[in-house]
Each structure stands twice: as C-alpha cells, then as structure tokens.
Amino acid sequence: MNPSAIRQAVIDALSSVAPEGDYDRLRPDRGLREQLDIDSYDFLTVMVRLHESLGVDVPEADYGKLATLDEAVVYLAARLGA
Amino acid sequence: MIEFRMPTLGADMEAGKLVEWLVKPGDLVKRGQVIAIVETDKGAVEVECWDDGVVEALVVQPVTEVPVGTVLATLQEIGAPVASGVASGVVEPVARGAESSAGASRADIPEAAGLAAAGRATGDATSTPADTTAAPIASDGAATSAPPTGRLRATPAARRRAQELGIDLAAVTASGADGAIALEDVERAAAGAAKSATGNAAPTSASTGAVDAPKTAPGADPRASTVTTSAPAMAATTSDHSAVSTGTRPPPAEAARTTSPADRQAAMRDAIASAMAKSKREIPHYYLGQWIDLSRATAWLAARNAERPVTERVLFAAVLLTAIARTLREVAELNGFWIDGGFRPAAAIHLGVGIALRGGGLVAPAIHDAGERSVDDMMRALSDLVQRARGGSLRSSELTDATVTVTNLGDQGVETVYGVIYPPQVALVGLGKVVQRPWAEDGAVSVRPLIHATLSGDHRASVGHRGALFLAALDRILQSPEDLR
User: What's domain A3-80's architecture?
Assistant: First the structure.
C-alpha cells in the first residue's frame, strides 16, 4: 500500500470522528488532537477505524507515534511493510 | 389508569416537542421501555415509561410541543379491569392547571401548539404553560387514540439509517412482531440493494458521506452547525462500530433535525447559563483538591490493554470513573440532591459524565448504577453514552437521573478544574490531565504520573472534612486498581 493510500485511510478515520475538520488545510506536521479537537475517546475510535481499514492494530504504547498526520503515515507504512 | 406525561429533561425545561411514538394503543409496555421520542435542546431524547401497562390511548400526536407535565398517553395497569372500549377511554380532562381548556375543540390545538413551537424557534424560552394550554384535550377520544395513519412505523435508528443510505422506508419490510421497521430491516434492505447494484455500496457511501457532508456556510462559525450536520456521518461510523459499542444501538437523530442547529445551540447555551447561574446563586460551594499518584493504576491498565486488541481496550477515563463511583459508596453525603431545603441522599449512584459536543455544547448524562460496575462494564457504558450524546439521542432517564457529576478536562491539557455543581446535585468531581511530575515517597523522589482530583461540594449537604475523606478514599482506591475489575 502506497503512502498516499495510507494517508487517505488516516484522513477517512479522522473524518469519521471529526467530520467538520478542514482536511485540505490540515497541517501534516502539527498535532492532530489540537487541530481537530480530538479527545481520547475519539482517538481510540480512530485506532479502531484504522484497524478495520488497514488491518493494523496499533498498540497503546505506540499511540504517541501517531501524533501528526505525517508521523501516522510513516508509522503505518512501516507496520504494513510498505 | 396510568398517565404518561411529558417529562422534565433538565432543570429549566418548560416544554418539549413530541416527535414520535414508538408504541400504539394496545401495546404492552414494560417498565423502562422507550416509548416516545421528544425533542429538546439537548437533541432527540428517547423517553422511557416507568410503569408496566397496556397503552390505552395516545393523547398527543406528533409533532406537537406541549408543556412539561402534559399527559401524552394513558396506560391501563396490567391486571386492571379493562375499560369498555379501550380506544375511547380518554374522556376526562387531562390538562391539569389548564383551566377550562377541557372544552377546547381539537381544532384549536394545532394552532396553539404551532405558536408554542414558533416561540421556541425564535429563542423565546419563556412560553409558560399558560401560553400553551393547548395541551391537547381528548374531547373526542376516538380520534386522538386512533393509531397514527399515513405514517410508516419505524424506529428512529431505522429512519436515520434509511436516510443515510437513501432508502425509501416504504420499500422496507418490517420483520418485528410489532410491525415497526427496525434498523436490521433497513440494513437488510440496503444489503439487498447493494448486492443488486455495485456490490459494496453501503460502506462506501457511509465513508464518503463522512468526508463530504458537512460544508458549513461561508462566514458561519465552522463548528456551530456541526452537531446536527455531522450527525449522519457520525452515525454511519458509529453504527457499525461494534468494537466498543457492544450491546448498544445507533442513535436516532433524525427527529432532532426538525430544529435548526443554530436554534439548538442557542437553547443549549441558555439552559447551561440558567442552570449554572442558579447553582452559583444558591449553592454555597466549597472546593478541595488533591494530587494522586497514578503509577499503579496506569501501569495496571497499560498491561491489561497490551493484551487486548484495539477494539477491547479500556480508556483510562473509565478507570477513573469506576474508582470515583466506588468511592462515592463510602461518602453518601456527596451523592444525592438538595431539594426543598434538605439533603436527600440517593440510593444508587448514577454518575453524570460531562461530555463536550462537537458543536460546542455540553451534556452530562448519567451512567446508571455506576457503583456496581467493573472497569470493562464502565467502558462499555461510557462508549455507549458518548456515542449517543454526540449522535443526539440520549434517554430521558439519563438526562434526569444523575446523582453526582464528573467533569474531566484532561484531554484539553488542563491540570485542574473546580467545577460548578449541577443543581439539585450536591457535588461535582473534577479531573485534570495526567501529568508526569516529580513525587516524593519514602524519602525518595521519582517521576510519577499524577492527576489533580478536585471536589466541589455543596456546603449545605456536606462539610469539607467529609469532602476531604472522599478525595483520600479515591486516592486509596486508585492504589489498588486490580480491585476495580
């Protein structure tokens, strides 16, 4: 799976909990929680969505590695062996 | 005869809009069953009936706004002699306090109800019961108690899902014994349609809906309209979110869309303003705070979550709520209501949980019987409640039953919150962010995860000493997290 498909999967997961977000203007190098006002419940939901769409079960200990969109893509690509 | 009335779903609610009946005359109703949908500023609320009985007559027809206390339906007690001609059983005047309105002809009603609704829509929350004596009076019971005709019977969840999927309810076959179209029926119809079309239409439309749906008007507060416009997208994602919503059903927000988001926002802000002003006017608050070491609790949960798939993980918030509920069992003065100049302790612990809505609103629905729940149980209840709160479909008991409230602002990075008590409750527990800080214990300093737990107490109902005992007990309970299983 290429990085742009992974990126889209992350945005799909995020938009499921924060549908009002402006994803065209999302800064990929800035924190997702602040930009989208995502709380811990929303974040868990995003992880569940990514598990569904990509088949990647992100351990809780790794949550900190998905703080920004860029980081999330890098992390998931590594997990997917892309 | 049992009278089912428009409930008060908040300290300042004066009227509610009946938008849908989920039962019809002749139906058997069990205590706790959701039988009607009422629209309030907190969204569409599923209203439960607290008596067992057989529905005799639906006195008020949807969509009608009526004052709190208005009889909406009558039920026959089970085992009671059945009145001759159940359908025409409503012959007595039902609008208590609505003087001489029993003589009002039914023709007056829609107009008056319309006025009440109009007053509400323009933000005039002052319409008193006197303005709306319209409380529909059954002078001809046969007409009022006739089952709704020309309207498909379907659960709110089913209606909403059908709308999301673009399915005509008329084309869906009801499978239930009661003849109402249920969510499963819609899903089945959708699956059938998808199979005959592109093969996988439903999931795709749901996810693109989430991306495309909410485009706010230019110049509008981008978040102001999200409560309702985002609702379908939320539902699409949460309805099949079986992972954390085991045993729950998706929220019915369809009915909620009859009021514009801006109106609802304004009404919700008014309600919060009114309740909080009342609190600060009447309740002599005292405030306590204590830092609590969470090393054991966080390590325990992390180890537990590490063994579980993402779908079964528990949020630390659920651990905190479980611990708070257990602690409240020890300090009864904090759990209950201040009513008519006296404290009335509550028998059960119904933990109100402050939930921020994406549109900027706030609700604090209750997790029932929280004192009896394990951590896993609490997580399920919390997931269910958050989803339904944000989807705009809480139940009436959840909005009225909370005996104490917890506010958790940790996700926003705040370390300390001293909250405002929600009257008539007598205490509010505040939680901040879990922070890593130096901590001295046994003469040595180490870095520990800490939380600042606070208590706002009503000094009429409890004294600071008891409040201090509560925080000390919370600390103690959080040091033995394995007991929260």
Answer: Orthogonal Bundle (1.10)
